[in-house]
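[step 3/7] fold_predict: job queued, chain A
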Amino acid sequence: MWQTFQSGNPLITLSGLNTYNFVFLILGIVLHWRPRSLIESFSKAMPSVSGVLLQFPFYAGIAQILTKVPNSSGTTLSDTIAHWFVGASSNSTVFSFLVGIYSALLGFFVPSAGGKWIIEAPYIMKAANDIGAHLGWTVMVYNIAETLPNFINPFWMLPLLGILGLKSKDLIGYTSVQFFIHFPIVMLLAAILMATFTYHPPILP
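[step 4/7] structure written:
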């Protein structure tokens, strides 16, 4: 973003959609001053999509920091995390298991598959390439594992609760049992099936 502001004519720079969103987001933060006030205003203005519109600019910022900002050794944080995955994985099967655990764990704290993938894709796929894990199945393992926390953090049930007049405590016991049953099964199958796929390097333009 900083390079964008240094790129030339400020009027042309401000006409870009990313810059436009950035400027108005910063203005909103400054004018509201308190995070709670900003979130409440978002919810009142756009009740159905407020969470998405507020979260995704921050996801983009995190992705930029991970992939574009080098540390003192000249590597990015994305590279460092990718190297950790490779170092902790003796083969593609172990790598698949680690990716599944990692995706499920983060799914509890960042319940947004699309936004989370923007942040994590660079180092997950780099690690898959480095260790020789099938790229398509790596994405599938990530996606499957990411859905498991929905049993514990079930955003999908909000419309159901409203229709049936229930509270989350009426369903969370059942869904929690489902999580603990499905989690080891999914992790085991993800790791076993990874061994059935042959790695093919990406075709670069």
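[step 5/7] annotate
Residues 1-50 form one domain.
The two ends are 26 Å apart (CA to CA).
exit 0
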